[in-house]
From TrEMBL:
Residue runs in coiled coils: none
The name this protein goes by in its record: Cysteine hydrolase
Protein's organism: Methylobrevis albus
CDD domains: cysteine_hydrolases
PANTHER family: FAMILY HYDROLASE, PUTATIVE (AFU_ORTHOLOGUE AFUA_2G08700)-RELATED (PTHR43540:SF9), PEROXYUREIDOACRYLATE/UREIDOACRYLATE AMIDOHYDROLASE-RELATED (PTHR43540)
Signal sequence, start to end: none
Length: 220
């Protein structure tokens, strides 16, 4: 067992039953001209975690532990995009509209891809998801069952939307979840802080949080 100095108390995981889930590190969220930008967000905030996510990937790759990357997006015909999601709010471009990185949040478009710095490597899973949670309408549960995973480490964007939603889905399915604090980010700093506090509250009611350095020290 490996024990990480985490909050609200130590997080212990069996190294043969752990997997990393990197949520939605796509150009559409992280780079100008994508979905996040069209919603009026400052995407540069999200770029700050690229070294943290890269460092976390290195820990998992060096140990040969499973890595799953997710991508939020929709089929080109939008058949898996609820009209309520597409029509909500007043973005400058809606899902499916053509932007500087191709059609917003559409499979196969440049904006839908994972940023180059965090590109998946051979043997890693890349999971397309139409919703905020990575278990909804995907094979994630089946993949984790096949791997024998009981413990999940989380990174990615945004903390309070797709990361937190997926952690809650995982929590209800019986996984023990650790969120790496400097490998996740929000367009709103106060939402990141609140999401992490909610996750840790009431005796890790959704999971644990720890900085990358704490995980790296535990694994070394
Ligand atoms: C959002 C996500 N924020 N990946 N998606 O719409 O968090």
């Amino acid at each position: 067992m490996i024990t990480v100095d985490a909050s609200p108390f130590a997080y212990t995981f069996p190294p043969d039953k752990v997997a990393l889930i990197v949520i939605d590190m796509q150009r559409d969220f992280v780079e100008p001209g994508g979905f996040g930008d069209t919603l009026g967000n400052d995407v540069s905030r999200l770029q700050a975690i690229l070294p943290g996510v890269a460092g976390l990937l290195k820990v998992f790759r060096d140990n040969g532990w499973p890595v799953i990357h997710t991508r939020e997006g929709h089929r080109p015909d939008l058949s898996d995009c609820p009209p309520a999601k597409r029509l909500r709010g007043s973005p400058t471009l809606r899902i499916g509209d053509k932007g500087p990185m191709g059609r917003i949040l559409i499979h196969g478009e440049p904006g839908h891809g994972i940023v180059d710095a965090l590109a998946p490597i051979a043997g890693e899973y890349v999971l397309d998801k139409p919703g905020k949670g990575a278990f909804y309408a995907t094979d994630l549960g089946t993949i984790l069952e096949g791997l024998g995973t009981t413990h999940l480490v989380f990174a990615g964007v945004t903390t309070e939307v797709c990361v937190q939603t997926t952690m809650r889905e995982a929590n209800d399915r019986g996984f023990d979840n650790l969120l790496i604090e400097d490998a996740t980010e929000s367009y709103f700093p106060e939402f990141k802080d609140a999401a992490m506090a909610m996750i840790r509250a009431q005796g890790a009611i959704v999971g644990w949080t720890a900085p990358l350095a704490a995980l790296a020290a535990a694994v070394a």
